Amino acid sequence: MNDLNDEERLILDQIERFAKQELEPYAHTLDANEETATRHLKRMADLGLMGLNISPDHGGIGLSGVALYQAVELVAGACGSTASMLTAHFLATDSVEIGGNEDQRRRILPLAASGEMLGAFALTEPQAGSNPIDMSTTAVKSEGGYHIRGTKCFISNAAYADFIIVYAKTAPELGARGISAFLIEPKNVPGIECGLPERTMGLRGGHVFTVTLNCVVPLSSLIGTEGSGFRTALSVLDNGRIEVAAQATGIAAAALNAAVAYSKERRVGGQPLSDFQGIQWMLADCAVDLSAARALGESAARVRGTGRRYSTEAAIAKLFATEAAGRVADRALQIHGGNGYTRDYPLERYVRDLRVLRIYEGSSEIQRSIIARSLLHAR
Ligand SMILES: Cc1cc2nc3c(=O)[nH]c(=O)nc-3n(C[C@H](O)[C@H](O)[C@H](O)COP(=O)(O)OP(=O)(O)OC[C@H]3O[C@@H](n4cnc5c(N)ncnc54)[C@H](O)[C@@H]3O)c2cc1C
Question: What is the pTM of this model?
Answer without folding.
Answer: 0.98
